[in-house]
Amino acid sequence: MNTSIEKALHKGLDGVEVPPRLEVQTIEKIREKSKITFFNFRLNRKYVSIAACVVVLVIAFIGVQPYINNNSFLPSENGLDQPSVQAPSSTNLDNTGQNSAVYHNIDISQIIRQPYEANVPASYFFQNWLQFVKKNPGVGSHWDNQQFNKDSIESVLRISIISPVLPKGDYTTTQSVLVDDATGEVIAFRTDYYYYNKDMLEFQNRFSVFYFLVDYFNAEELEQVQNVTKSNGQIHIDDFYPSTNVYAKTPHVRKLIYLENSVGIAIEAEADVVTTDGKVDEEKSRECYEETDKQLIDLMKSII
Amino acid sequence: MANNFDDIEYLVKTYGKEVLRICRYYLRNSQDAEDAFQEVFIKLIRKRSTFCGKSELKTWLTRIAINTCKDFLKSRSLRNSTDESLLDCNDCVDVSKYNEYDELYQIITTLPLDYKDVILLKYYYGYTSKEIARILKLTEPAVNSRLHRAKNYLKKILTEKGWSDYEYLD
């Protein structure tokens, strides 16, 4: 029995009463907010014709914008390398989810996680695979938590960056760079997009996007794992077969690796298993993995 | 009717006390607790369409209240404030009636958040591990493990404070 903890809590909390003033204030505040919503609705109706014109113009702009500025990158408010919500660069892409990602600046420690982690492992490619295929395995490298933006990546990798289109949802991001211990140079950029339930702060998925310099790695090995290719405007995606028997499981969610000239792009996801009454639901988990796999493919398509 | 979200007055009067207790427990400050209290009910009304009825409204509300308080704690830390500096007179106990339970309560409220969650839900509300797991989105073994660690942590603190025995815990 833990009667003392109980007693202590009851002693500390039982006396808490809601002051009538607070009740009244809360009720009024909620009603006031309801009125504001209603008022806005009426206001919108009054100017409905103007609003309709604005919507038409915005739709027209969104439709034309990818053609006039194909590789543009809309910086976020805080200047981070967060994806914009612009349309994808290629017209043959699946546009599902565009304009639907919402970004928040919350600490990832606030996001509630299941105890099962990395059932579809995250960071497999960068934390395991690339260690095997370094040109000079004797030289170490380390990740630094460091924020960057489009210009930072472009100046190092000398390519134009296209912002990714993520599935609909609420996101927060973290960023880091891979630093070569020998030279101190940045050799890769990594952005993790945490998709979470905004109301309950529950973790849903994590998408990780890496840009890296191919020169630091064994090109032949990289080519073996490349499973995304592009020819004549068409994108082809194959399964991911690591040539070394590493321990990471890659059951249903692929790692997507694309190489172009001297730059590589790798995309990974972390998807938790689905549990029902505390037990892993294999069927639902598999569905979740397959859905994540599709989302990863769309994500890759949106940036190459 | 328990799920009548349109009756704001009913909701505030019925669930207000429990919500304010959670807010006070986590925030340890009257002003923040009252702000969080209002925020909880505003969220409740805003998000009523997402309430699927699988769990009890009280359970759902408890989870919203806990998450809201954690948001407040985060914003408080962003303001570089400390718990101690935010304690106001309303939170101070009457010294003449102060006893070991008051002290234990004060110590419990300083526990890490993960431990505070399970301690409150288990020992104040009397939820089962299964129910706590549902509220906190954990598994039952994880809840039990966290409870065990919470008690050990508490014992360690009490030892450091010179409490010679653990009759208050076991």
| Outline type of chain B | globular
Order of helices and strands of chain B: HHHHHHHH
Largest interface: A-B, 38 and 51 residues
Number of helices of chain B: 8
Low-confidence stretches of chain B: 80-95
Radius of gyration computed on alpha carbons of chain B? 17 Å
Strand count, sense and barrel status of the largest sheet of chain A are: 7 strands, mixed
Helix content of chain A: 25-40%
Task: Tell me what you see in this structure.
The complex is a heterodimer of chains A (about 300) and B (about 170). With about 300 residues, chain A is of the alpha+beta class. Chain A has a domain at about 105-304. Helix content of chain A is about 35%, strand content about 25%. Chain A is built from seven helices and eleven strands. In chain A, a hairpin with a 2-residue loop joins strand 6 (about 230) and strand 7. The longest helix of chain A has 27 residues, at about 20-45. Residues about 35-45, about 65-100 and about 240-250 of chain A have low confidence and may be disordered. Chain B has about 170 residues and is mostly helical. Chain B folds into two domains: about 1-90, RNA polymerase sigma factor, region 2, helix turn helix motif (Rna Polymerase Sigma Factor, Chain: A, Orthogonal Bundle), CATH 1.10.1740.10; about 95-170, Winged helix-like DNA-binding domain superfamily/Winged helix DNA-binding domain (Arc Repressor Mutant, subunit A, Orthogonal Bundle). Chain B is about 65% helix and about 0% strand. Chain B contains eight helices and no strands. In chain B, helix 1 crosses helix 2 (about 30-45), helix 1 crosses helix 3 and helix 7 crosses helix 8. The interface between A and B is large, with 38 and 51 residues.
